[in-house]
Each structure stands twice: as C-alpha cells, then as structure tokens.
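Interim report to the steering committee. The following record documents the input for Lipoprotein (156 residues).
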Amino acid sequence: MKKMLMVCVMIVMAAALVACGGQKTPLDVGAALYKQGDCAAAQPYFDETIAHPGETMDIAYAYFLKAKCAEKAGDAAAAYENYYAAKIVVCYAVSVSTEHENLNTYARSEYCERILPDTLNTLAPDVGEAKVEAIKAKVNAELHDRYMQQFASEAK
C-alpha cells in the first residue's frame, strides 16, 4: 500500500513539474520566433509583453528584440525608438536594483552605460537629429505615462 501511494505521489509530482515547465509567456514565444528569423510573427508577442509585462526586464527585452527586428528590416527610426526605450527601461532597472553584487546587474549596467548608447549613436545619423529628438520625447512621454498609471493604480 505504501509503495502504491508513493508511486502515485511521484506521478503527480512529475506531472506538476511538466505542467509548470510547459507554460510559455508571450515574450518566450516572441523570442523563439525572433531566433527563427520570423520578426513579423514575433511583433504581436513583443507588443503583448510590453503591454502586460511579468517584470521590468521583460519590457526591456521586448523593446530590444523589436529594435533588432527593425534594424534587420532597415528601419533606422523604428530601431532607434525601440533601442532608446530599451535603454530607458534597463537604466531604470539598474538604478532601482538592490542587488549590487549580482552579475545580472553588472550586465544590465553595461547595456545601460555602453552598449545601447553606442548603438543609438551609430543609428542617429541615419535617423536625423530632429527625428531623434522627437523619438526621445515620444518614448519618454509614453514610459512616463505608463509608470504614472502603474503607480496611480497601486495607490488605490
């Protein structure tokens, strides 16, 4: 009887582990499609992630992958916009991180301080100074509004 009960418990635990590992987020699906080279199919998943992120870095990664897709498509303005949004979110995540000795924080800091700014500087001449300023204003307003909505809803 005890052996039978133990076997049943093990089967239930194995099934639970399989079920937990089988759930994919929209970001997981979009990233997989991106890796397969299907940026068009990945876009709705990135947009879903940005609209309803699981965590702050999900937003940054979705923007980053959208930027990579735009860059591959030759759309410098869209690439700039999404890289800029990724930079803002990554820098925010680094600034509020309490894990100062964490390798993820160091990597995010490298993206915030060097990698994304270098990429933006490379794209800026193709976008044009006026368009760059308009993109920055647009992204800053969108992200500010988004965070203000989040804080307003948390205060209720």
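Residues 84 and 127 are 13 Å apart (CA to CA). The committee is asked to note this result when reviewing the revised timeline.
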